[in-house]
């Protein structure tokens, strides 16, 4: 077998042997692989490509569902940490998807989890009944009611923001923040 085309010739020098392996799947489909592994059997070659395809599907799911477009670090350790962290996150999401009584697709589960991340809810109740209204936060306990948080934030903003001295005379709406 010979390589044709400029890319194929650039990758494999002339005279290097290649092998074409054709596998028939139980469904009747035919898969064709070109390899330079001459000592491996056709079923071994097919299994290697199948495993490699599973790795490709993992990275596709990682990029689509967790929005990992590029890797943050460049060292081997940084890449290992980011891949392991993403794998743990993906496994937790798959666990939620499989244990939920609601029929989630993985992408919908990720999107709605992202939207409800800071909503006070029981995770298991929400996963099983995602469109039910959230319960009122407890009067006592860990959290502060949202209405008092909003009032505190509003008062804090009012105490830090003052109108510009020249705003009254010029009609501009400049705002200064006291720090």
Structure notes:
- The strands form two sheets. The protein has a two-stranded antiparallel ribbon.
- The chain has helices at residues 6-11, 42-65, 76-99, 106-115, 123-128, 146-160, 167-170; strands at 19-24, 30-35, 161-163, 175-177.
- It starts with 5 loop residues before the first helix and ends with a strand.
- The longest helix has 24 residues, at 42-65.
- The radius of gyration is 29 Å and the shape is elongated.
- It has 179 residues and is mainly alpha-helical.
- The chain has seven helices and four strands.
- It folds into three domains: 1-65, no CATH class; 66-135, no CATH class; 141-179, no CATH class.
- β1 and β2 (30-35) form a beta hairpin.
Keyword list:
single chain, 179 residues, mainly alpha, 3 domains, two-stranded antiparallel ribbon, 7 helices, 4 strands, 50% helix, elongated, disordered C terminus
Task: Give the C-alpha Rg.
Answer: 29 Å
Task: Please state how the strands of the largest beta sheet are arranged side by side.
Answer: 1-2
Report the total helices: 7
The SSE order reads HEEHHHHHEHE
Biggest sheet architecture: 2 strands, antiparallel
Task: Give the class from helix and strand content and strand pairing.
Answer: mainly alpha
Q: Name the beta content range.
A: 5-15%
Q: Please provide the count of β strands.
A: 4
Spatial separation of the terminal alpha carbons: 75 Å
Secondary structure: helix percent? 40-55%
Low-confidence stretches: 162-179
Give the overall shape, derived from the CA principal axes: elongated
Mean pLDDT: 74
């Amino acid at each position: 077998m010979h390589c044709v085309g400029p890319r194929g010739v650039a990758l494999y020098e002339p005279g290097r042997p290649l092998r074409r392996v054709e596998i028939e799947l139980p469904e009747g489909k035919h898969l064709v692989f070109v390899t330079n592994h001459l000592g491996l059997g056709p079923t071994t070659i097919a299994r290697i490509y199948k495993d490699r395809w599973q790795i490709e599907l993992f990275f596709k799911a990682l990029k689509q569902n967790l929005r990992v477009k590029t890797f943050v670090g460049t060292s081997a350790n940084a890449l290992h940490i980011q891949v392991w962290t993403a794998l743990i996150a993906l496994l937790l999401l798959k666990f939620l998807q499989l244990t939920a009584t609601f029929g989630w697709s993985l992408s919908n589960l990720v999107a709605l989890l992202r939207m409800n991340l800071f909503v006070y809810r029981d995770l298991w109740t929400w996963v099983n009944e995602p469109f039910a209204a959230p319960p009122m936060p407890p009067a006592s306990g860990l959290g502060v009611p949202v209405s008092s948080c909003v009032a505190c934030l509003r008062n804090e903003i009012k105490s830090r923001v003052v109108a510009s001295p020249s705003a009254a005379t010029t009609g501009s709406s400049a705002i200064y923040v006291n720090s």
